[in-house]
């Protein structure tokens, strides 16, 4: 005796597709068997969120909700905290926070921010390898490629881990820096940042309060300027 689940297939060969209407994927069409059945305009950005939304619409249809109604409902969806959350702006520099803590999430988050700010804006990626998997070094060889969409990279060296973030910095194709001290790292980021830049802080922890440190130091830099 078996318990069988129905499948909803997405992609070019599936029943469901999502078609971006703008670069950051905050607006997209819902296609079912090649026909438009809804349109989403929401606060989230990134293709990974678009695909998640598409599957939510497919699941809702499975229990009787029309795709058009589900698409409209997503327009009022409030995103979880720490998902490209804007923490503030100082001296013309925006500071974002994201929970990304493994290479796949880092890559997706940087792709989403790049789509949001455009190809010419500078993104400064600031990463704390804090999860147990990251500390063990399981993902360290994938970190540099995942950071490829950032213009400059800043890495915190955690204590008592069996590898050095300097290895990742050396593997990055763009300028990359590291420090074992949060305050020093914040100073390095602020020294590099210019008006119009976007700082993306990534960690699954508090990162020593670096978000506010960055905003405070950026404001001080503006005052000195």
TrEMBL record:
InterPro entries, alphabetized: Mpl, Mur-like_cat_sf, Mur_ligase_C, Mur_ligase_C_dom_sf, MurCDEF_pg_biosynth
Determine if Signal is one of this entry's keywords. Answer: no
In this chain the Mur ligase C-terminal domain maps to 82-205
Please identify the protein, giving its name as recorded: UDP-N-acetylmuramate:L-alanyl-gamma-D-glutamyl-meso-diaminopimelate ligase
Task: Give any Pfam family that matches.
Answer: Mur_ligase_C
Q: Where are the transmembrane segments?
A: none
Q: Hey, what's the signal peptide range on this chain?
A: none
| Statement: the UniProt record of this protein carries the keyword Ligase | yes
Please give a single GO biological process term from the UniProt record: peptidoglycan biosynthetic process
The protein's organism comes out as: Klebsiella pneumoniae
**EC numbers:** 6.3.2.45
Family annotation (SUPFAM superfamilies): MurD-like peptide ligases, catalytic domain, MurD-like peptide ligases, peptide-binding domain
